Amino acid sequence: MSLLVVGSVALDSVTTPLASGDEVLGGSASFFRWWPSLITPVRLVAVVGEDFPAEHIELLRSRGVDLEGLQQAPGRTFRWRGRYLPNFVDRETLDTQLNVFEHFHPRLPARWRDSRYVFLGNIDPQLQLDVLQQVQRPALVGCDTMNFWLREPCLAALKQVLRHTGVLFLNDEEARLLSGQHSLVKAAAAIRLLGVEHVVIKRGDAGAMLFDEGGPFWAPAFPLEHVVDPTGAGDCFAGGFMAYLAHTGDLGLANIRRAMVFGSATASFAVEDFSVDRFRSVTRADLTQRCAEFARLVHFEPVQL
Amino acid sequence: MSLLVVGSVALDSVTTPLASGDEVLGGSASFFRWWPSLITPVRLVAVVGEDFPAEHIELLRSRGVDLEGLQQAPGRTFRWRGRYLPNFVDRETLDTQLNVFEHFHPRLPARWRDSRYVFLGNIDPQLQLDVLQQVQRPALVGCDTMNFWLREPCLAALKQVLRHTGVLFLNDEEARLLSGQHSLVKAAAAIRLLGVEHVVIKRGDAGAMLFDEGGPFWAPAFPLEHVVDPTGAGDCFAGGFMAYLAHTGDLGLANIRRAMVFGSATASFAVEDFSVDRFRSVTRADLTQRCAEFARLVHFEPVQL
Asked: How far, CA to CA in Å, does A272 sit from each of A82, A149, A199, A225, B203?
């Protein structure tokens, strides 16, 4: 099944303790769209400027990303410049230029209105609502957001989005901000009351937690020898998660947990190299293999006294 | 099998965002010794001052802790005062008075020299070495430490301790400091080269990771609705871990993983109430039950594409 992805495409300039690069392929949709194409067709709705390199377009197309919804607008592409601190977790934004992204209005090609799996990347909740009005009967809506949208005047629109959201991806700080609760257990419960069926709390190098009818589930971050660039790890996680569900077409609780693990596996590859470089070599077999390693990472036999 | 515990006993004054208390039972051995007594006999080697409340002694004795190795020295008991920040993870030390602990020399009663399970709490590595010289043929030595001992002139003695250490407990910062490696995978590998068979890296509210022959294992921290006081959670983890091994007498890799889960369960109860208060009501059945909940927390079915 196709996965519709709406989000940002950017040219990132990133410095990590181990690597740096100027104007590499970035943005929430950019990281997201890449991985799903390994296991499921992707329909991308985003905007780039006139300066967006043709090679990036070609790369996406070659990976099976349908680009009919990619707008090319007069002006420059969204740019972000940031630097990671030595712990590879905290980062500082040095520069953000929205450019063409500032006036982005997602428009779905007519034939995409029947999309069953929809991922709303981290953009203005009003735009997320616009997208929801353009799709007919999605089986699952995934939504990403950030602290900026968690206060008025944006919060009201976000709450409308959440009423249609099956899976919400946010980090622990954002979960606390949205719910007013410090305990993540309580925060997730409060967010579920807003209409979200599955709350996924991303916790960086501690992994990701799922809260739904099936009780809490924790997919730790895969322990890696080499972390080169954590940029977009959260987006890759969401990408793997949504793609797994679109690919399998199974929204049962057990499969949602599998999607958590697949998302973690996806993210774990992403951070092993700079920007999207690691994507170029990873195969389906690698992903399946890492999921099996995840199973060993948390396996233990029953504890008896 | 008995578990020999050597460490500090303190009177703690702690403020957390939800509670505070003055001169409550604290110290690494204090938190440690409490839990093991639920499942295994404990032999405690520590020092307290003349001012140490008789009720604390009585409480320990009533839980089956053998106090023959508890020295009562002229002077005041070790005191620590600290405050947790709103995130319940970071804390600041406001005051430390070593008092009688400053001149502590652990002396084992003769009949304890045959102890098979030994836990060296976080004290001067030179004292940890002294203890090792007093035990005959331990089956397993567990060792806790902290950043203070990870530099010269203490480091040389610590490295001697590590050559006899089966399980080393330390946090991520300490693992990085000791190994000079940022990646925890690499850090653990370097520490294993120092002679430690099982490296346990405690990661606060992210849980604890085990690195040994069996490959990496991650026991997440149990997600709790109420965290009241995280003081001593790491000690309780180590306590549960060591007690489980002493109780079962099985040092196989699979059982070491179970001990990680039992330690996590122990710690998860500890933080639910202030100081050692939660210990008063917890039963073996509660511990077993929480271990089963841990199994559900990380359970997923095989991921296939």
From this structure: 18, 30, 27, 9, 22
> How much is the ipTM here?
0.90
Q: How far is CA B174 from the centre of its chain?
A: 15
B3-298: CATH topology is UDP-N-acetylmuramoyl-L-alanine:D-glutamate ligase (3.40.1190)
Q: Of B127, B117, B148, whose CA–CA distance to B246 is shortest?
A: B117
Nearest-neighbour CA in chain A from B96: distance (Å): 29
Residue A252 pLDDT greater than 90, yes or no: yes
Q: Give the pLDDT band of residue A275 (cuts 50, 70, 90).
A: low
DSSP character at residue A247: H
Q: Residue B104: which residues within 8 A CB-CB, separation 6 or more? A: B8, B46, B47, B71, B123, B127
Q: How far is A272 from chain B (nearest CA, A)?
A: 12
Interchain pair B291, A301: CB under 8 A: no
Q: Return the pLDDT at B142.
A: 98
Q: What is the largest CA-CA distance in chain B?
A: 69
pLDDT tens digits, B143-164: 999 888 999 899 999 999 999 9
Cα(B301)–Cα(B123) distance, integer angstroms: 43
Domain ranges of chain B: 3-298
Q: Say whether residue B304 is in contact with chain A using an 8 A CB cutoff.
A: yes
Residue among B53, B49, B46, B52 nearest B69 (CA): B46
